[in-house]
Amino acid sequence: MGLIHIDLFTTLDGVAQAPGGPEEDNDGGFAYGGWQAPLLDELVGEQINAGMAGMDALLLGRRTYSIFAAYWPFQEEGVDWSIARLFNSLPKYVASRQLLTPQWANSTHLGPDTAAAIRELRERHQNIHVIGSLNLVQTLFAERLFDRLTLWVYPILLGSGKQVFADGVVPSNLVLVEPAVTSPTGTVTLRYALADGMPGVGDMSGDDRLNSAS
Q1: What is the SS3 assignment for 108?
Q2: What local confidence, expressed as pLDDT, does residue 82 receive?
Q3: Where is the Bacterial bifunctional deaminase-reductase C-terminal domain (predicted)?
Q4: How far apart are CA 63 and CA 182, in angstroms?
């Protein structure tokens, strides 16, 4: 069975809305579109590229798909040629409640039962990546329908905007699958895997580890 990877850029206060540009998503009057751009650096770029290793399908929400479809097919001769070649060649699946006729080559609109369609995709691909697509991501969290979660956490606070973890997240355990990487701008790359079980609870009042530190 293949893995579903969720790849998200987020601020320290959990905002993941419109990292790439001012016109990406201004729902709710969001005024900080493009907040990621001033903090990009070479190491972040390397980490993003490393995360694409083995990707054999893209799974996107309607808005992110529309943005990608209007950009990447026209970039094969530009500075982003390697990413463009990858994205343009991969099978792409669009999760949308609205009827959509995909215009990007190798694209398929999933049926009305998104969760069932995604489970079927796991039988056909090894590494399916979800980039952005916050509404879709909330469905994946609620269904525990993901295997890896990579967060690029940027050292800014925005105070408002669409959140990575909105209402409906199912309590889950995650494990860090490799050491965190911090870039010169203070951006931290965190790669997690979904783990079994539910988060535990306890009482720290008698914990000797705390007493010994005082």
Answers
A1: strand
A2: 79
A3: 5-174
A4: 30
What pTM was computed for the model?
0.91
Q: Is 87 left (phi over 0), alpha (psi -120 to 50) or beta?
A: alpha
Check residue 208 and give its pLDDT. Answer: 75
| 127-162: burial string, b at 16+ Cβ within 10 Å, e else | bbbbbbbbbbbbbbbeeebbbbbbbbbbebebeebb
Helix (H, G, I), strand (E, B) or coil at 2: coil
Per residue in 72-125, pLDDT (tens digit) is: 887 755 555 678 889 999 999 999 877 677 789 999 999 888 899 999 999 999
The H-assigned helical ranges of 52-156 are 62-69, 81-89, 114-121, 134-142
Side-chain half-sphere CA neighbours of 119 within 13 A: 8
Tokens of 83: 């990413």
Residues 6+ apart with CB under 8 A from 142: 168, 169, 170
Backbone angles phi, psi at 119, to 5 degrees: -60, -40
Domain ranges of the chain: 3-195
Alpha helices (H) along the chain? 42-51, 62-69, 81-89, 114-121, 134-142, 208-213
Query: Can you read off the two tokens belonging to residue 212?
Result: 């010994």
Both tokens assigned to 96: 């949308």
CATH ID of 3-195, from 3.40.430.10, 3.40.50.2300, 2.60.40.350, 3.40.50.300? 3.40.430.10
Q: Is 33 helix (H, G, I), strand (E, B) or coil?
A: coil
